[in-house]
Amino acid sequence: MSTLSPVTGEASDTKVAAIFEDEGRARRIAATLRRRLGLRQSQVRVITRHDRHPGRKLEPENKGIFRTMLIAHVKLGLVGAAVGGALFVLLYLSGLQLVTSSPGFAAAVIIAYGGVFGLMAGGLVTLRPDHDPYIHKVYRGLDEGRSAVVVHAFDAAQRKAAQQALDEEGGETIRTL
Fold first, then answer.
1. Are 158 and 30 in contact (CB under 8 A)?
2. Whole-angstrom distance, CA of residue 73 vs CA of residue 126
3. How far apart (Å, rounded) are the C-alpha atoms in residues 57 and 47?
4. Alpha carbons 147 and 48: distance in angstroms, whole number
5. DSSP code at position 131
6. Per the domain annotation, does 160 fall within a domain?
């Protein structure tokens, strides 16, 4: 059921977490989620203050950020260059004198700028600004001695179901995009 994201190359782009007061309750809720939603063991994790490496449970993709960075930059850079190429064709066909008088130079500049903007989008995807509030909230809960249930959703339906189930359990819920 798990497929890699076309932009990041990750199995799970979306995460949902909920903070609970005690570890026992968090473990019971995690087991219930796995059963009720049909999630894999690896998709639902419990993180406690006793975990030595909680970051590995928060962001478990073992291929690492380098793979995400490479895939996002290559794909979005190519998309940006293609959009630049399409823009050049539109401008050329519209008869814009600036483009028609020097088509080679205009094509190179417009396509290059499209590629650069695509690479910038790849950088934004690599930074994953949507993950910061998720990570900080979980770490704050761990610092306060609480436990977290983290769900690594493979699609929007799993994310929505996990968030609804965690909300019903009364945890402080947060999710990434």
1. no
2. 8
3. 7
4. 5
5. H
6. yes
Single-letter amino acid code for the residue at 43: Q
Q: List residues bridging with 174 in a β-sheet.
A: 17
**Residue 12 burial class via C-beta count within 10 angstroms: exposed 0-12, middle 13-18, buried 19 and up:** buried
69 and 123 part of one domain: yes
pTM of the model as a whole: 0.74
128, two tokens: 């994953």
Based on the structure, what is the number of domains in the chain? 2
Let me know if residue 3 belongs to a domain.
no
Point out which residues pair with 14 in neighbouring strands: 153
Residue 44: domain span = 14-63+141-175
104 plus 81 within the same structural domain = yes
Per residue in 71-128, pLDDT (tens digit) is 899 999 999 999 999 999 999 999 999 999 999 999 999 999 999 999 999 998 888 7
| Whole-number Å distance between alpha carbons of 93 and 134 | 47
Residue bearing tokens 């794909």: 75
pLDDT tens-digit map of 121-140 = 999 888 877 778 888 999 99
Which residue, among 141, 176, 146, has the nearest Cα to 158 in the 3D structure? 176
Secondary structure of residue 46 in the 3-state scheme: strand
> How far is residue 37's CA from residue 39's CA, in Å, rounded to a whole number?
6
At residue 61, what are phi and psi to the nearest 5 degrees?
Answer: -55, 115
Maximal CA-CA distance, the chain: 73
